[in-house]
Every structure is written in C-alpha cells, then in structure tokens.
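Recap quiz, item 2
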Amino acid sequence: MPTTVAYDDVEVGTLIPEREFRIRREDLVRYCGASGDFNVIHWNDRAATEVGLPGVIAHGMYTMASAARLVTDWAGDPGAVVDYGVRFSSFVPVPDDDAGAAVVVSGVVAKKLDDNQVVVNITVRCDGTKVLLGSRATVQLS
Amino acid sequence: MPLNRDFVGRRFVADTPFLVGREHIRQFALAIGEHSPLCHDLDAAKAAGYIDLVAPPTFLTALGMWRPVIPTHDPTLGLDYSLVVHGEQRYSLRRPVVAGDEIVVSGTITDIRNAGRNELLISDYEFVTTAGEVVAAARASLVSRGTAMAEKGT
C-alpha cells in the first residue's frame, strides 16, 4: 500500500509536526460503544470521583489511538503501523464542557530499519504533562 | 483485595471467532476521529490494494473488550474494574486487520505483581484467523489501583 511519505525521503531526526487532538465527552461515549470498554470512570463523574479520580478520564486507548493518528496521517495509511507500544503515565481528565481536553502530539523519526520501516518516537502531552511515555511506532513506508 | 496469583500462567482461548465488521471499523474510526477513506470507503481501500476496509492500528482492543478472553470479571480473580487503569499496551501487527477477518483471540496471564500500592496484571495475546494466519500479538498491563497487600502492617 503506497504511503504518502517515502522511506528514502525520511532521515533520522525528521519531525512530524505537532498537532492538537481534542477529546470531548461525546468522543468517550462513542469510544465506549466502539471499543466495548464501558468502564464507568470514562463516562460517570460520580463513579470516577468515588475511586479517587479527578472526574471522568479518557480511555488510555483513546489517547493511544489519537497519537497513532499523527503517524498514520503522516504516512497516509492507517494500515502502515506494524508495531506500536506505549506506557500510560498520567490521566487525561475530560471536563464536562464543549472544549474537552487537548492532547498535543508530535513525533520524530528515531531509527531507520530494513525493509522500508522506520521507528517514530511520539510525544503526547496534556496540559504540559506527558501522558504517554516510551510511545513508539514502527511504520512501514513505501 | 489483592489479585489471585493462581491465575498467573493460565491461558484462555475465545470459544468463538470475532468477525471484524465493516460497520464496526467505521464506528471505531469515527470514535477516534480517524477519517481516512481507507477506514470508511470500500472503493478507496481496494484502490489502495486492501481487500476490504482497514482497521486503525489499535482496533484490536475492541476484540478483547467486547468479548474478554481473560476472565477479568471472574470474582475469583478479584479484579475491581472501577479501580483499573491501563498501564502499558503494545501491538505487533503482521498485517493490518481488515473487515472480514475472523479472528480467534487467545490470552495468557503472564504476571501479577505489586508495584508500590498498586498491582499489575500483565497479559499476552495472540490474534489468529480461523484459517490459521497469525495476524497480531499484543501485551497489556493493567494497573489495579491501591489493591496491593501492605508489606508491613499499616
């Protein structure tokens, strides 16, 4: 599947420009249904605060999916990711308002592998705090 | 209450395959704001060389959540899901998941251990089609907040 970025045009240090992804309550409700993860902490403030959270928080997997979009949009193919791992280091509280939470994602090519694959290190912040650590995607380019 | 360590090493296999549906891929993509035509438009996906709609790279989470293979709700495991947050997640994909894939999920609880006041439940997954093609592997680490048995009296 041809990607919009070619392996030969990418160097170690190539930056994927920063983007902001908005996560609103409505997105979490949709994600509950699509993913099947109906954990109450993702839609119920009362239940979330009862277990010591600041309120409803985003699914870690939602943040992980948003970070992947930076890479797949760059590559031009949602099927280009062959390996993807993250550590969830901090919560993303999603307030009950129209603005939601802002997650800021950027990437840098950290390694060029054989077979036209590159490793992208992804940085994901919410309110200045890193919410994913060691976030790394191996991407198959053309 | 601490998690039941007897579950470490146990492997579970889904009793029915999970059929990846076009509408499910579209709904998942919509939920995460993924508007690539390869996830939504069959002609576009075929023009790009795929046999059907392409699932986003984290789509496989839906297989485990809709039909949990590891018995996270088994009271004898002792997991209170409202105390659970995700610790780590990794996917290794041999190829993209596409609509029409019939996937059998298997999962093994590889470790349960304390991490400060929390406990970690680590599990490894395999995603194999009904034709026997290995599509992907995954590792998940769940954090059970505050359930570790105190090492000294409190």
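Chain A has a mean pLDDT of 96.
The first strand of chain A starts at residue 15 and ends at 23.
End of item.
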